[in-house]
# Entry
Amino acid sequence: MRSVAVIGSGPTGIYFLKALLESEIKFNITLFEQAAALGTGTPYCPTVNSKQMLANISSIEIPNLLETYCTWLHKLHGSELEIYEISKENITERGFYPRILLGKYFQEQLIEIIKLLIAKGHKINIQNNSFVRDVDYLNEKFELRVHSYNFIKQILTYDHVVMATGHYYDKAIDAGNLMASPWPYKKLNKIRNCKVGILGTSLSAIDAFVAVAHNNGSFIENETGELAYNLNPNVSQLDITMMSRKGILPEADFFCPLPYEPLEIFTEELVQNFIHHCQSDLLDETFHLFKLQLLYSDPDYAASISLEALDLQQFNTAYFSPRINHDPFVWAADNLRTTQLNYNDKKTVQWRYAILRMHETFGLIVPHLTLEDLERFNSLIKPIFVDDYASVPHQSIKRILAAHKAGILNIKKLPEDYVIGNPADEGFIAIKGEDFKENFDYLIDATGNKPLSDTDFPFQSIST
# Structure
């Protein structure tokens, strides 16, 4: 019986194990997990995320395991759903629900998949609380060095290894009132009744905002469905500022057909052909094909931005400038109203849908780009794909608007030259740059950029 090590028991590991259910070959499987509990993965773990943090993936987008997420949710008892402020009659396949609830779904699906694997003749060995420190390939075998919480060290060999380690966040570099990430969420509990800065305005930053806002008050929905934010009685000085290079918010999740409809022009076959025959102009040729697809999918949008005449830099500007040139909260409110109407009418914004469908195929060219074009790709077209893909649940936008209306949330644009530091003998964090100066009691880095060490922060002693 051939052996296989699966490193990580989150969604990636779970989908691999599900695929093994179709295998005629029987395996001796060892499942390694660094946490005590199996199945949730970091983004959906209850010790890392609060129940207020929403997953930005809906049931219709999640590849099926043994049952759909929506089906599983409907099977939960009403009292359990109440814990997450969910009513069974409002559960839909396009709804967004708390991250830790999605983690519980993955966890229960994993348990059932393991039972089926055993019934089919596979052997399963589970090693939780275990860290795989290194993987080496020696004498046609994979050698794993494994450490566990009880200080036992092992060297184990396997025929196959599946790396399903997934999401990573750095736990080691928090420095007092400077936090390297919003996770685990419990470390944010001490942030109360003070001035808070959040680096970032997208998914992770919204998680940080939600956690801090929940610790200092509550979101209440009135009879008309409008959300309001009320501070706790002992809180009077909460002030949250979210900051990013563009100073914009992500857009609300938009309605589109799922699974994806096929693209008419920007096909994988044509992109692969470019990869094989284009050399120095690979990025520009692929972008030209990208524009042809946008023109076909949404000619009105293409005409409104004069798409045919735009190069990569100009298209990036055309994509982002409407939001950059508007108040972020006004834009968010208008965008939310539009997307809610589109959901009700099942109407798709075709240019956004085209970009959404093109992002993975466009990414095929990345390993073949010159260093110069890779830099252009990362700075000009990748941010568009990320922004389009990372639209957020409508509830997240409602919370942002409610907090701003309550006077406790602002958004600011960071200058290119900003630095972060502790003023001498002061107990706060300062951010300074050209025409920019802010002091915070706490600063949370929610940009998703993982520093390698303390020195990789733009952190220095600065004067105010």
The radius of gyration is 24 Å.
